[in-house]
Amino acid sequence: MEVTSKNRTKTTQRIIDALEDEISDMGWQGLRMNRIAEKANVSKTLIYRYFGNLDGLISHYLQLDRFFPVFTDQILAHIRPVEKSDLARIWYRQVIQTYRSFRSSKPARELLKATLFEHDPMADAISQTVDKELTRLVEQLSFIEGFDTKAISAVMLGGMSYLTIMAQNNRPVVGLDLRSEEGWKRIEDTIRLLYIAVNKLAIETDEIKLESQIDDQWS
């Protein structure tokens, strides 16, 4: 049983690697199960058995830490704020690091582009999984109650997704060259400033409270 489990893990890794190569080579719209199976040196039947269909395979890939960070309870315990003003740093670091990862990975950028397509079942499945994973990150790192962190995050993450896609298409936005490091430095500096302002508002407003488990650390 142990050998079978190890073999499945290795086989799954080959399939995921083959999928990633295909996304880089063909884009998400050019994905074909035949080519993925051939690159992974497995049968299509095996891929269907492991993942159900192509949508299931892509969904599995999107939930891996190579695309989105996976926070266990142990990891979350280490990134909890020590001071109330630490909230901004946690928020902007996560956004900046996530989108740096997207920009450095062609498969990630290709799948991010799919979220803009309408009336396409695969694009719908990709969009739903991307949104699910982004929502998970936001909920894990909110740390406050009485403040609409989801709406704030929708503005921040939606803007960063759009800018990343425009950079992929080699198009400027409001005159900023998103193909350059200087352009992205200006974007990231602004993200920091915006989250610092949000953090200041959050801790100075009486209606907004930090989660009880964090209050306990500061009591």
UniProtKB/TrEMBL annotation:
The keyword Transferase does not apply. Residues 9-69 form the HTH tetR-type domain. Residues 32-51 bind DNA. Signal peptide: none annotated. It holds the Pfam family TetR_N. GO terms for molecular function: DNA binding. Gene3D superfamilies: Tetracycline Repressor, domain 2 (1.10.357.10). Keywords: DNA-binding. InterPro entries: Homeodomain-like_sf (IPR009057), HTH-type_TetR-like_transc_reg (IPR050109), HTH_TetR (IPR001647). SUPFAM superfamilies: Homeodomain-like. The keyword Lyase does not apply. It comes from the Bacteria. This is TetR/AcrR family transcriptional regulator. The lineage of its organism: Bacteria, Pseudomonadati, Bacteroidota, Cytophagia, Cytophagales.
